[in-house]
Specification:
Mean pLDDT: 90
Low-confidence stretches: 355-361
Oligomer: single chain
Helix content: 25-40%
Structural class: alpha/beta
């Protein structure tokens, strides 16, 4: 990301229409915008000098004002399960982590939207470092653009560092490029955004996108959720769920077997399971009442303890029993398999710390 040091504008993240203005600004013919677009989103060049179907003069003019804006990761860690965690520098300082998750024929990337986070969820390491800056659309896209496994990806999850809806404009600009026919061409149904439930922006997201939505829930009780997630104070989960029940696409009116297809937008709830905190029968009963009428799935994520944290991890058996009890109460539930635990790449463990011990293969 070169804007801060060179004063040049960034090409990555611009739409075809915006690239037409770039071509015009550099005195290039109109068709050059399609050529630049192809070099960016089809061939993924790292420098303007690689755009060889542009004339030498055009490349020189373009280079005077613009940079591609991509940046390779500066570190990588790999878990024995195949998970890889990459460290990318941010243009305003600091780092963000991006996680590559291979799974048979599927391969997902978990990308970040902020350096740090404002939400301060009690179990999450990201929030402990505080909020530092918003990532630009180019920095969000760069986590795919410069990912070594980019061509293997089948799914994208905005579940890394930061609250995506707290950086709404940049996230949606990145989404436009990710899903556009002149961009990366990803299906919106292969993109999932995870949020604490920032209600005003959530309403916009439902109206302005077709991506899957995951709501961080973690407790159905107001006081307890507020203790775990301070965002509950501003955006109570009851209000978030009440809004989702007004959305026709999320209403449970068709039955499980007919409704759950690969072509529909999916709604899920993330539930980090904290031993002795949010794993009791009263929680299951309250969850059943809260989610009644929604076509959704509960992703149960066993908490991974770390030094200095306030919570304990459940055993595999305890987490599985919780899932089974949810199912018995009519809530479709999946226990999220832990990935990348040994490299601190699991849920709530991303802290963007650059150190030899953390990034050791």
């Amino acid at each position: 990301m070169e804007t801060e040091t060179t004063g040049k504008d960034i090409l990555l993240g611009k739409t075809l229409e915006e690239l037409r203005l770039v071509a015009e600004d550099c005195g290039m013919p109109g068709y050059a915008s399609k050529q630049i677009n192809g070099w960016l989103y089809n061939k993924h060049v790292t420098s303007i000098s690689e755009m060889t179907n542009l004339s030498k003069t055009s490349r020189e003019r373009l280079s005077q004002k613009y940079d591609v804006g991509c940046c390779e990761p500066v570190d990588v860690a790999e878990d024995k399960d195949g998970t890889r965690k990459y460290l990318f520098p941010a243009r305003n300082g600091g780092f963000v982590e991006t996680v590559f998750l291979p799974e048979g024929k599927r391969a997902a990337v978990c990308i970040s939207s902020q350096v740090g986070c404002k939400m301060h969820c009690a179990f999450c390491l990201t929030g402990r470092g505080g909020f530092k800056s918003q990532l630009s659309a180019a920095e969000i896209l760069n986590q795919l653009y410069s990912l070594p496994e980019r061509d293997k990806l089948t799914n994208i999850v905005l579940m890394g560092q930061g609250e995506p809806l707290d950086n709404y404009d940049n996230v949606m600009r990145a989404y436009e490029i990710l899903t556009g026919k002149d961009g990366f061409g990803f299906s919106p149904r292969r993109i999932t955004l995870s949020t604490c439930g920032v209600l005003p922006k959530l309403k916009r997201l439902v109206a302005e996108s077709e991506m899957n939505i995951a709501i961080s829930l973690h407790s159905p009780f107001h006081e307890e959720r507020m203790e775990i997630m301070p965002a509950e104070r501003a955006f109570p989960i009851n209000d978030v769920v009440a809004f989702l029940k007004t959305c026709e696409e999320f209403r449970d009116t068709y039955g499980v077997t007919e409704r759950e297809t690969s072509h529909q937008r999916k709604l899920s709830f993330e539930y980090v399971l904290l031993k002795g905190k949010n794993d009791t029968p009263k929680h299951i009963s309250a969850l059943k009442h809260l989610l009644k009428g929604l076509d959704c799935r509960m992703n149960v994520i066993p908490f991974h303890s770390y030094p200095g944290c306030l919570f304990q991890s459940p055993t595999q058996e305890e987490a599985m029993a919780f899932c089974q009890e949810l199912e018995r109460n009519g809530i479709r539930a999946t226990m999220r398999r832990s990935r990348g635990k040994s490299i601190s790449a699991a849920c709530g463990m991303l802290a963007a710390r650059r150190s030899k011990s953390a990034y050791q293969k």
